[in-house]
Design a protein that fits this description.
- 26% of the residues lie in helices and 33% in strands.
- With 277 residues, it is an alpha/beta fold.
- Strands 12-11-13-14-15-16 form a six-stranded mixed beta sheet, with helices on both faces. Strands 1-6-7-4-5 form a five-stranded mixed beta sheet, covered by helices on one side. A two-stranded antiparallel sheet has the order 2-3.
- It has two domains: 4-120, Roll (Ubiquitin-like (UB roll)), CATH 3.10.20; 134-276, Cytidine Deaminase, domain 2.
- A hairpin with a 2-residue loop joins β11 and β12 (169-176).
- The protein has helices at 55-65, 98-101, 118-122, 136-148, 152-156, 179-193, 216-224, 238-247, and strands spanning 4-5, 13-19, 25-31, 34-40, 43-50, 75-81, 86-91, 105-107, 115-117, 134-135, 160-166, 169-176, 206-210, 229-232, 250-256, 259-264, 269-270.
- It contains eight helices and 17 strands.
Length: 277
Amino acid sequence: MLPRLTQARAPLTHEIEAVDEHGQPQRVAMPAERDLTVYVDRRELVTLMTLGAQPEWLVLGYLRNQRLVRSVDEIESVTVDWEVSSAAVKTRSGIDCIEERTARRVVTTGCGQGSVFGALMDEVGSLQLPDAVLPQASLYGIVDAIRHQESTYKSAGSVHACALFRGAQLLLFVEDVGRHNAIDTIAGWMWMQGLAAADAAPDAPYVFYTTGRLTSEMVIKSAQMGVAIVVSRSGMTQMGQSIAAQLGLCAIGRALNKRFLCYSGRERVRWQPGLAG
């Protein structure tokens, strides 16, 4: 049974008056960053800084990617109230040993300083990825789809985006102040849709795209959701590359127009070098 969710979408931008290089006032839009404190069964868990585009999916994905909840069926409801900047999660049977499981944190390189609970880093070796091969033509289709996507970034800047593709088909595009929030939101949406990466056809796999760099956190979150191919407009960290290679995950960075670098998992690309021009 799926949880009950509120629909507490918040305005994504806020207009202010700034002064340009000529000393002239200009009305400009900026991302409307806000805090959201998550409570699980009335116990304060974490405060997330977010745009608030889809806060319920964000909370679900956060719980999923932190491995605090193994199945969406364990959650009865997620209630977001922006008047008090809180998200109240009610589980059906509680979370076993939540104090011990959330005691150790690792500060990550996420924008605004993300964090993961230490046990998440300990479970990397148990992750299994499905068969997946991405044609080079589909990679170019992904990059082109992002280029044409309407976004808060184009109007206000200062945000990261993540997207979920099936092959070159865009399924969901999410922006937030940090890329870790955006990928968590996608994880929550996948749960609510009942999507499992292993169910995709090997030659039209689920692919994550992010405008931010591929860090260890992004690689681990992608892998534990079963997504075997990640693409970034930016680069990759050494730890991110090491974990991706360990898992057999295909990590592609610097993807812009026809250029890209495959940092790991090159066997998951169906190479078509003639398309590179």
